[in-house]
Design goal:
The structure is a single chain. The protein is about 35% helix and about 25% strand. It is built from 10 helices and 12 strands. A hairpin with a 2-residue loop joins strand 10 and strand 11. Helix 1 packs across helix 9 and helix 6 runs parallel beside helix 7. It is elongated and about 60 Å long.
Length: about 270
């Protein structure tokens, strides 16, 4: 089978550069386009040089329509505004759209869902293989332990992260809620300050820490009478997210239209 031709969105950013490096190292994948925001000072730069590799002739461009004419997929770890702008073009061109962007609103999610009857989309709050296994375990434990076990989710990221709780924390919250058979939006406790009163039974709590260069630490605690169970994942380098995203793209190539998750990619959707 021919190499999968991939576009990296946000190619000038830290995650975009990591994706460029991983594509260069992976048999079966080739970088065919590098997308950056209009007005960026990096437009016209060689994507591989920016990623610390020898030049490959793929220049950063703001024109996704042109870039996508000869591509099979797009890896998109940008910001919600940019991702939503990419959705329609990716669907029109028939690209596999791997979305790792966090901070998406309900209206953003609706836009993404609207194209999945004709496009292949793989979306996850975290592309790490380990985190997605963690989510499956959280769902299973939440199903096994009743409401006498309170669920609390703690996450820490570098000081430059702009959204909280992290997309991964929310993904873990959704997994816990699914295990309990409840809706996260009805049970999420996302802000505690001052005299809040006693903890409401059945809530799923969130706490967010920011500082330093932490790539991403997540823990889910099940706190019951006289015992606590904690499931954790610690990311050491953002390259792990790039490896997961590329695995998702290669898996999705040739799949029928639909909205897929990393659980589907890893064969965990039945847990």
């Amino acid at each position: 089978m021919a190499d999968m031709r991939l576009i990296v969105a946000g190619a000038g950013g830290r995650m975009g550069r990591a994706l460029t490096r991983v594509i260069a190292e992976t048999p079966g994948a080739v970088l065919t386009g590098a997308l950056e925001a209009p007005g960026s000072e990096l437009l016209g730069k060689d994507a591989s040089v920016l990623a610390g590799l020898p030049a490959n002739g793929v220049k950063l461009s703001a024109d996704l329509w042109t870039l996508s004419a000869n591509a099979d997929g797009i890896l998109d770890f940008t910001v919600p505004r940019a991702t939503i702008a990419n959705v329609a073009i990716a669907a029109e061109r028939g690209l596999v759209h791997v979305i790792g962007t966090t901070g998406l609103s309900s209206s953003d999610e609706a836009v993404i869902n609207s194209v999945t009857s004709r496009a292949v989309v793989v979306k996850s709050g975290n592309m790490s293989l380990g985190v997605n296994l963690l989510a499956a375990l959280v769902k299973r434990v939440a199903r096994s332990l009743d409401e006498s076990f309170d669920i609390e989710i703690l996450e820490m990221h570098h000081k430059g992260k702009i959204d909280a709780p992290s997309g991964t924390a929310l993904m873990l919250g959704e997994a816990a809620a699914a295990g309990r058979g409840i809706k996260l939006e009805d049970h999420a406790a996302r802000g505690r300050d001052g005299v809040t009163g006693a903890r409401r039974s059945g809530d799923i709590g969130f706490a967010s820490l920011r500082g330093g260069t932490a790539a991403g630490d997540h823990s889910v605690m099940f706190a019951g009478p006289f015992e606590r169970l904690t499931l954790s994942h610690h990311a050491e380098d953002r390259v792990l997210f790039a490896h997961g995203a590329l695995k998702a793209a290669l898996w999705a190539h040739g799949k029928k239209p639909g909205l897929y998750s990393m659980a589907d990619v890893l064969g965990l959707s039945d847990i």
